[in-house]
Design a protein that fits this description.
Layout (H helix, E strand, L loop, with lengths): L9 H6 L6 E5 L2 E4 H17 L6 E5 L4 H12 L3 E4 L6 H11 L3 E5 L3 H11 L3 E5 L27 E6 L9 E5 H14 L8 E4 L6 H13 L3 E4 L5 H10 L4 E3 L2 H8 L14 E4 L6 H11 L3 E6 L6 E4 L13 E2 L4 E5 L14 E6 L6 E2 L3 H7 E2 L2 E10 L5 E6 L4 E3 L2 E3 L1 H9 L4 E11 L3 E10 L5 H11 L8 E4 L13 H10 L1
Parallel strand pairs: 1-10, 3-4, 3-5, 5-6, 9-10, 11-12, 12-13, 25-26
Antiparallel strand pairs: 1-2, 7-8, 8-18, 13-14, 14-15, 16-17, 17-20, 19-20, 20-21, 22-23, 24-25
Helix pairs in contact: 2-3, 4-5
Length: about 500
């Protein structure tokens, strides 16, 4: 099928969105599209004067109007932007900045004590503190003389260096061009079409993360709708915003949905403005999907992708039958295959589990400075995702686990995601995560961690697993905990769980 309009870059997309329509709102401050464009033009001129064109500009900012402006301004300046998690530790931040080698770092003034010493040590030429206590990037809003640069990015220029959020090892920088970024926006629009000027997208997911940029920041501009920004997640604040701002689209990971449904008074809130929830960044348990839709009457559209894939590969298409547990069907011009884990060359039939590989115009150019890892991930024109999945007879994709999370116990391959789903099906389970740890006899055994929502205990949960799983898949140990550790972007931290389990 043909795609909706594909822009040469997201800056071209913004340039066509002028007018007095509301574009950005955050904590009482708002910008129209005309003001948004002026602010992007004003800051991009400064970045160009500092030598940003053809280089990298690191953005270490929380959710704010300043982060939205800086993202578009970096692109408009001809730079490759490098969104970085603002709550990284000093070690994590130093590793990413050293690898990215930016000429400019833009950061929240509140993080100066962390960022400035590292930037000084790495010899980053220019440092710009923004927000309260620093520069305010919306000061160009009334300056009618400001415009976007005459020369805008070309489709094959590098747009973004997105670092993967791995829980072990050194993060890898993913090179995405403007063409890859723009085509994925249009692919997403084909499957999740937005209505236009009345759209109001709530951005509570972190803007440094690829999920928020792909489902909040860019789609809002594509449809000329408004993006309502929350600086931080609090379930009460999200529910208040949905009602007060008449939010139409809510991009939210499973952790946020769990938090909202567990908040006092959730069931009595007004969700009548919501047209859809977009779930991504982590697997969504079927139980969560069904409960959300039953209470709110709002459909949850789950998708699948990763930084390396631009990022979206498959979604449950809006207006079509939702298949619970599935991440849907490929976007236009995207191919998905399941191949054997060992060689990655044997295409597996319907219903068999293997590694998911993908091909499409949105797939990354490669990892920055890592030719060997690029060659291992991009093979024969295919992106090898590292995810284990299967495809049903209707073409729906199911993600079962990460390849690296596969556990071999007693010679059997076990995917912890399956165990998680069985645990979630118990009415007393609020959250669950299983991991594998070394075992002298079986090679590995399964340990599961559970947060309870009712009066079950570990023995009852183990019996539930025994009723629903082959014997070798039943956890050797089930630990009841008050919370399950998460990464900084809200994903379950499997590395931390393994350490807990080994120390058990």
């Amino acid at each position: 099928m043909s795609l909706p309009e594909v822009y040469d870059s997201v800056v071209h997309m913004l340039a066509g969105a002028g007018g007095d329509t509301e574009a950005l709102l955050c904590e009482g401050n708002s910008l129209s599209y005309t003001e948004y464009i002026r602010c992007v033009g004003g800051f991009s001129a400064e970045l160009i004067a500092l030598g940003a064109a053809g280089e990298r500009v690191a953005l270490i900012c929380g959710n704010s109007i300043h982060m939205a402006i800086a993202s578009f301004a970096g692109h408009a300046a001809g730079a490759q932007i490098v969104p970085v998690n603002p709550i990284y530790s000093s070690r994590e931040l130093r590793l990413v900045l050293a690898d990215a080698d930016p000429v400019i770092v833009v950061y929240d003034a509140s993080a100066a004590d962390l960022v400035a010493p590292i930037a000084d040590r790495l010899g980053i030429a220019h440092q710009i503190a923004v927000g309260e206590g620093g520069r305010l990037l919306d000061t160009w809003r009334t300056d009618v003389s400001v415009r976007l640069p005459d020369k805008l990015p070309a489709p094959d220029d590098l747009a973004t260096l997105q670092y993967t959020g791995g829980t072990t090892g050194i993060p890898k920088g993913v090179n995405i061009t403007h063409r890859q970024l723009s085509v994925n926006i249009s692919q997403r629009e084909a499957a999740w079409p937005l209505s236009g000027l009345d759209e109001r997208i709530l951005c509570v997911m972190p803007l440094f993360h690829v999920f928020a940029s792909s489902v909040c920041l860019h789609p809002a501009v594509y449809c000329r709708g408004a993006m309502v920004i929350l600086p931080r997640f609090h379930p009460g604040a999200v529910l208040d915003a949905i009602e007060a701002e008449r939010i139409t689209r809510l991009p939210a990971g499973p952790t946020i949905l769990h938090g909202l449904m567990g908040f006092d008074g959730f069931e009595s809130r007004d969700f009548s403005s919501l047209r859809s929830v977009y779930s991504g960044s982590a697997p969504l348990p079927e139980k969560t999907l069904r409960q959300w839709q039953a209470i709110t009457g709002c459909v949850v559209l789950e998708g699948f992708g990763q930084s390396e894939s631009g990022p979206v590969l498959t979604v449950n298409w809006d207006g079509k039958r939702i298949v619970p547990g599935s991440v849907g069907k490929p976007l236009p011009k995207t191919e998905i295959e399941i191949v054997d884990v060992e060689t990655g060359t044997q295409i597996l039939p319907v219903g068999e589990q293997g590694e998911v590989r993908a091909r499409g115009p949105q797939v990354m150019s490669g990892y920055r400075g890592r030719p060997d890892e690029t060659a291992a991930t991009l093979r024969g024109g295919w992106l090898y995702t590292g995810d284990i999945g299967e495809i049903d007879s209707a073409g729906n994709l199911y993600i079962r686990d990460r390849k690296k999370d596969m556990v071999i116990t007693g010679g059997y391959n076990v995917y912890p995601r399956e165990i998680d789903e069985v645990l979630y099906s118990h009415p007393c389970v609020a959250e669950a995560a299983a991991v594998g740890i070394p075992d002298d006899y079986r090679g590995e055994v399964i340990v599961a961690y559970v947060v309870l929502a009712g009066g079950a205990d570990a023995s009852a949960l183990r019996a539930h697993c025994a009723q629903n799983l082959a014997k070798y898949k039943v956890p050797a140990r089930i630990e009841i905990v008050s919370e399950i550790p998460k990464t900084s972007v809200g994903k379950i931290d499997k590395a931390a769980l393994r350490k807990m389990a080994v120390g058990g």
